[in-house]
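User: My collaborator sent over this chain with a note saying "see what the structure looks like." That's all I know about it. Can you take a look?
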Amino acid sequence: MRLWRWLAPNYSAGLLLFAATFMLGRRLFGVSNAVGALQGLGATFSNVGFVGLPLVISAYGGEAALPAMLIVIGDGVLMLGLATAIIEADQGTGRGGPALLLLRAVGYGLLRNPIIVASLLGLALHLSAVTLPASLFAYAGLLADSAGPCALFALGATLASQPIREGAIETGFLSLMKLVVHPLLVGGAALFVFHLPPLWAAVAITQAALPTGANVYVLAQRYQLHAGPISTAVLVSTTLAVSTVSAVLSWLYPVG
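Assistant: Without extra context I'll predict from the sequence alone. Here is the result:
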């Protein structure tokens, strides 16, 4: 399958939902462009790494690994990159810099984001077929194993300082967008617009149905923006996803 045909349903739906959540969030909650970008990311950025990869491989077999990994890379580069660019632009606008300085600030912000840089480096290494030393793989594995627990610890510390009932409407809004609207849009695009093969469509819909990824909180914490509400949205969407993802899998599993 051509790469564009796989990416098109995922990111046409994702970008549409990002824009809709961004605009609705600003209108409903009166937030800044930067916070609106975090809300848009929260509605479209799934927990594809820690949950998505093992889940789809377990459900649909080893053939699901390639489309799942493409989503991991695409989310890390495109969706995180878009949110980072908007945040940097909003903060640059607040400093009143000229357009050239603003573009420089956006570019610098993208290059400073370790998630985006790591995704691009991983893609480049894969395409170049370069073989790395085993010792480097082992060291990277140690860092990778500690990344998830560290992010979850920081998320839990933030949750402890903010009652979940605060921002309940915003949390419900983001959870609805992520767990219901996102998979519906991706499913519609995959099945009825781009007519993906059954396995690839199943992977796309399953990945879209996953809860908000912890990297959205990491980005919020990095810029000291809206970290409390975002951490709550991650927790609540993860809790609710036990039911919603189970429902999606019960429908899609025969496809695999």
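A starting point for your reply to your collaborator: The longest helix spans residues 65-95.
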